[in-house]
Design a protein that fits this description.
two-stranded antiparallel ribbon; alpha/beta; 46% helix; 15 helices; TIM Barrel; binds manganese (II) ion; 10 strands; binds 2,5-dideoxy-2,5-imino-D-glucitol
């Protein structure tokens, strides 16, 4: 039987080295899988059919590597990319693992740490540009507090803004074809992380010197941790022209950052997300920032990676079926019908329109009495997802 859910380069499925390379270490347990090299991980991703691979600087080059070691690592990595055809659409900086960043990087109270974070990020941007990345992600995992006695949020915002303004100027000065994508998360590892949601990030971007260079990298798990509808956040970013990248995974509500396989928990939300991305023609990477269960070996890690991509493709097919389903489309046409008597309101405000509208009579009771077939519509959606339509 033909398998219609095989990943192809045109699907732009990517994984970070840290995702399939996760050794299963967690706050309560040691690694359960041996560590694979970046070269081994590139070949693993090629085996499962990924399009690209992303990395934090130190996923590829250890923080204490010598320049000669760095050059050899990059040379070997480039060779693996050439052998497999994988590309590097995104790069980012690890500004959260080393103890130096224990109180943040760009927002640290220590000016030395802030300066070191800038230096580290410039070097990591150089590495990302060298490997062809077009998007540079900033996830401020340590940019936050446990106690608000320690830092004024205005100072934190000012420091983060100054760092991004400096780095935007650096990218322009170097002539890199790079754009920045800010990734929000509400908490963990800090008790509260600044700029916790997509909406907060979009508001912050407007305050930068070069807002045109900066967008967002929404992650499913992170908006779910905040109890929010992820597809709505993505739609707002898209509407603002700021959906520069996306981190796909899954997450139960009210949990720590689970980074589960895409579609593993909230299949209906995953469907509406895929339908949105495909309907608007999103052309960016479908990046799976997720990792396999700690219980798995590398064969299960490959099943995890394949599962992320297969579920996306299955839901993409379901979205096409939704858009072609006559009964569903008839209900949508019914509930979204235009009212020609109100077409005079199209095209914005005028005094004449306002006067005419103020003189109109509405049958408020009749408006409230209208029955909406949303149960039918949602049941049809569920039945489509359950495979009975
Ligand atoms: C966590 O969700 C963050 C880090 O893994 C990384 O900086 C970013 C890139 O997708 N996601
Ligand atoms: Mn996450
Ligand atoms: Mn992420």
């Amino acid at each position: 039987m033909t398998d219609h859910y095989q990943p192809l380069p045109e699907h732009r499925f990517t994984f970070g080295l840290w995702t399939v390379g996760s050794t299963g270490r967690d706050p309560f347990g040691d690694p359960v899988r041996q560590k694979l090299s970046p070269v081994q991980l590139v070949h693993l991703l090629a085996e499962v059919g990924a399009y690209g691979v992303n990395f934090h600087d130190n996923d590829l080059v250890p923080i204490d590597a010598t320049p000669a070691e760095r050059d050899q690592i990059v040379k070997d990595f480039k060779q693996a990319l050439a052998e497999t055809g994988l590309v590097v659409p995104m790069a980012t900086t690890n500004l959260f693992f080393d103890p130096a960043f224990k109180d943040g990087a760009f927002t640290s109270n220590d000016a030395q740490v802030r300066a070191y974070a800038l230096q580290k990020t410039m070097r990591a941007i150089d590495l990302g540009a060298e490997l062809g990345a077009g998007v540079y992600v900033f996830w401020g995992g340590r940019e936050g507090t446990e106690s608000d006695a320690t830092k004024n949020p205005l100072d934190a915002g000012k420091r983060f803004r100054e760092a991004l303004n400096f780095l935007c100027e650096y990218v322009k000065d170097q002539g890199y074809a790079l754009k920045f994508a800010l990734e929000p998360k509400p908490n963990e590892p800090r008790s509260d992380i600044y700029l916790p949601t997509v909406g907060a990030m979009l508001g912050f971007i407007a305050t930068l010197d070069h807002p045109e260079m900066v967008g967002v990298n929404p992650e499913v798990a992170h908006e779910h941790m905040a109890g929010l509808n992820f597809m709505h956040a993505v739609a707002q970013a898209w509407d603002a022209g700021k959906l520069f990248h996306i981190d796909l995974n899954d997450q139960k509500f009210g949990r720590y950052d689970q980074d589960f396989r895409f579609g593993a928990e909230m299949i209906k939300q995953a469907f509406f997300l895929v339908r949105f991305l495909e309907d608007v023609g999103y052309q960016g990477s479908r990046h799976f920032d997720a990792h396999a269960y700690r219980t798995g070996d590398y064969e299960d890690v490959k099943a995890f990676a394949r599962g992320c991509m297969r579920t996306y493709l299955i839901l993409k097919e379901k979205a096409a079926r939704f858009n072609q389903d006559a009964e569903i489309q008839a209900l949508l046409a019914e509930v979204t019908a235009q009212d020609e008597s109100l077409s005079f309101l199209n095209g914005g405000y005028s005094r004449q329109k306002a006067d005419r509208l103020k003189d109109m009579t509405f049958d408020r009771v009749a408006l409230g009495a209208r029955g909406l077939p949303y149960e039918r519509l949602d049941q049809l959606t569920v039945e489509l997802l359950l495979g009975v339509r």
